[in-house]
Design a protein that fits this description.
It contains six helices and no strands. It is mainly α and 179 residues long. It has one domain: Four Helix Bundle (Hemerythrin (Met), subunit A) (Up-down Bundle), CATH 1.20.120.1760. Helix 2 packs antiparallel against helix 3. The N and C termini lie far apart (39 Å).
């Protein structure tokens, strides 16, 4: 177990703690945990490159940790009425579509490499930003105009849909080129 993988596992462990804090109305604590977990997300990748500690385990764990953090935050904040349920459905549906695509490629014995497209990296960053601003709002650390959050919600939804469509198109092209 190297330093980047340890940070990734730590991020996974922090997910239920963050959710419990949100449920128990410890909003500032949940926000701090989310910020710390988000920092470990960038730090683990940076350290893996700098320390030359990229690993197969890390390649699988890192996106799973991201999905666990994002999905848990979206679902919890949606149940609390902070993030609209329709946005949570879009975010989770995109990840489900990607998972189904991976299963289809595997079932068809099509070899593939999982590499996020630039639009997917931007989408993930915007999803993290959405959680960030929603948690800021619920913790009352900063007060926003409702329109500000609505704009972020709609931007996140639009980019998430575009990213999902990008994966579908690439998956279909990949299947067609391998048959």
């Amino acid at each position: 177990m190297n330093i980047p993988n340890t940070l990734t596992v730590l991020r996974i462990i922090l997910v239920p703690i963050m959710v419990i804090c949100l449920i128990q109305a410890y909003y500032v604590e949940a926000f701090v945990i989310f910020i710390f977990a988000s920092i470990t997300d960038g730090l683990d990748g940076f350290l893996a490159r700098v320390l030359k500690q990229k690993s197969v385990l890390g390649a699988y764990l890192d996106p799973l940790a991201d999905k666990a953090l994002i999905a848990s935050a979206f679902v919890t904040l949606s149940i609390m009425g902070i993030i609209p349920a329709w946005l949570t459905v879009i975010v989770i549906s995109r990840d489900f579509v990607i998972l189904v695509g991976i299963c289809v490629l595997t079932f068809l014995s099509v070899s593939f490499e999982i590499r996020p497209a630039p639009i997917s990296k931007i989408t993930t960053a915007l999803q993290f930003a959405t959680i960030f601003f929603a948690m800021l709002a619920v913790s009352k650390l900063l007060v926003f105009e409702p329109l500000f959050l609505d704009i972020i919600f709609w931007l996140t939804a639009g980019l998430t849909v575009l990213s999902g469509l990008n994966y579908i198109i690439k998956g279909v092209q990949h299947i067609n080129s391998s048959t």
